[in-house]
Amino acid sequence: MTKNAEKSLEPLENPFFSHSKAINPHAFEAQKLVDSIFESTTTAGIELTLKTITALQANAEANFSQLQALLEADSPSQVVELQSAFVRKRVDASVDQIRESQALTSKVLVDVSNSFKDFFKQFLAESKAA
C-alpha cells in the first residue's frame, strides 16, 4: 500500500482494524497453507488421472485380447471357460485399481487435514500467547 493510502486509513483505526492487524501476520501462513493444499491436490489429481488412463489402457488391451481369444475358441464350452476366467481377472484388476485410487485419495486427505491441523494449532498457540 502507498504511504498516502496508509495515511488516509490512520484516522479510521479502531479496535476492528487493530484486531485485523494482529491477525494479519497469519495471512502469510494461511497463504502458505492454501498454496500447499493446492499443490498437494494438483499433484494427486495428476497422479490419479495418470493411474486412471493406465487402467483404461490395460482394460482396453485385456478386452481386445479376450475378443481375440474368443474368436479363436474351438467350442462353446471353451468360450464359456474363457469368458468366466476373463470376468474373474477383470474383477480382480478392478478391485486393485480401486484400492490404488482409494489409497492415493486417502493419502491426500490425510496430508490436507494435517496441514489444517498444524496451521490451526500454531494459530491458537500464537493467539493464546498474545
Automatic annotation (TrEMBL):
This is Phasin domain-containing protein. It comes from Sinorhizobium terangae. InterPro entries: Phasin. Residues 47-117 form the Phasin domain.
